[in-house]
Amino acid sequence: MNHAQVINYISQWMKNYSDSSGTDGFVVGISGGIDSALTSTLAALTGKKVICVEMPIYQSNKQVARGRAHIAWLVSHHPNVTHVEIELTPVFDMMMSTLDQLPVANAELAMANTRSRLRMTALYHVAQTNRLLVAGTGNKVEDFGVGFFTKYGDGGVDLSPIADLTKTEVYALAGHLGVHESIMQAPPTDGLWGDDRTDEDQIGATYPELEAAMDYHERGLDPEALNSREREAYAIFLRMHKANLHKMKPIPVCIIPGQVRG
Q1: Which of 54, 77, 239, 248 has its CA 20 to 30 Å from the CA of residue 26?
Q2: Statement: residue 151 has pLDDT above 90
Q3: Where are the domains of the chain?
Q4: In Å, how far are 51, 122, 153, 231 from 119, measured between CA atoms?
Q5: pLDDT band, residue 79 (cuts 50/70/90)
Q6: pTM of this prediction?
Q7: CATH number for region 3-199
Q8: Environment class of residue 172 by beta-carbon count within 10 Å: exposed (0-12), middle (13-18) or buried (19+)?
């Protein structure tokens, strides 16, 4: 990959999209992870207004520290970047105290997704009040492979600048741009659980393993040629891909035939 060319292409694509939509720039939610670090840096390179938003909800100190270090680095290098912190923990607590009165299954997962959807709401408030677009931070494996995102949470965005990049490519571009070493070395996590569980803990496979499985699947190759661990990762990919396909496809619309309408 030609790092400089890809970086320039994405940032110019972002600028052109903002220009054509009549907006002034971008809002990016900062998590302390690699994807939001790369997306916010690419947004900064457009020269347009960028607001980095921290939205802690019982966030670990390590994640918060990484996010703040990245924002400080970005602000010091790009005068078009500002930031704001929106403390959502009290909002989350109040919402959950109400929702907890309802009978629910999979309460822990629902609670994690609620965190993500609260953040989406906050991002769109900042975006609308500043004539900005919400820039998504999902990569190719998450958005189109295993569907590892929250529908109408971190999946609720205006544009997806890095959704054609694998996680490996995200790291490569972030390293080329000089993203903070603490972020480069941190295990990927969605930060939705209030603990230290990583993406690998939740999925059961690493991103390189999922990338290989996705490539194998897209090329229609025979999984019998894989070794036992590769087959295991391939099975994880297929299971998640099937289960989350509804997130990756457009919302189905019921088209009523003319003869039915009468």
Answers
A1: 248
A2: yes
A3: 3-199
A4: 14, 5, 7, 36
A5: very high
A6: 0.94
A7: 3.40.50.620
A8: middle
